[in-house]
Amino acid sequence: MLSTNNIIRNSLAVFLAAIVTPASAADGFFNSVSLEAGAGSEVHMVRLAGQSQWEKQWFKSNGSHLSGYWDLSVAYWRGTAYRNVKGDHQDIADIGFTPVFRYQADSKQGWYAEGGIGLHLLSKRYDNDDNRLSTHFQFGDHLGAGYVAGKWDIGLKLQHFSNGGYKKPNSGANFFVLKAARSF
């Protein structure tokens, strides 16, 4: 039987192979990749993600529309107050899949606003700085804004992780995240 850590390691290997394989870009599996860094209360996160843009556009008006993308990610969390003890560390791997809605210009350049709610699998139950998540499965939702110039997308977002209250404790984990993405 595979452990959660093995599942995450194997998923990371497949994900990285898809990103670095030139055929994956040519086939349109990912339209862009991003590197993200985030911080919360006594916790830091780094995330690598691939995005697949949707072709569908809704609410077209005045040169803008609502569209979005699929986001597949792997992340590493480093808590620095494990079990509420400052200086004790907790390391967590996270795999996520999120549909993201984005309001943007028809040219897909300039300012945008976005939001998404996705599914995440954590390698360990989060227990850091008096915040605890009682399950490995979490919902990850975010609201963000950013700017696209050419092939580069720079954004900021607020991200919240929670199991939706289906098991206690569920105090949640929040991150402020900086994202840099490059399309191909």
Protein architecture, described:
Its EC number is 3.1.1.77. This is Lipid A deacylase. GO terms for molecular function: acyloxyacyl hydrolase activity. It is an enzyme of class 3 (hydrolase). The chain is mostly beta strands and 184 residues long. It has a single domain, classed as Beta Barrel (Porin). It has two helices and eleven strands; from the N terminus they run H-H-E-E-E-E-E-E-E-E-E-E-E. Strands 1-2-4-5-6-9-10-11 form an eight-stranded antiparallel β-barrel. The protein has a two-stranded antiparallel sheet with strand order 7-8. The radius of gyration is 17 Å and the shape is elongated. The chain starts with a helix and ends with a strand. About 3% of the residues have low confidence.
Quick structural overview:
The chain has 184 residues and is mainly β. The protein has two helices and eleven strands.
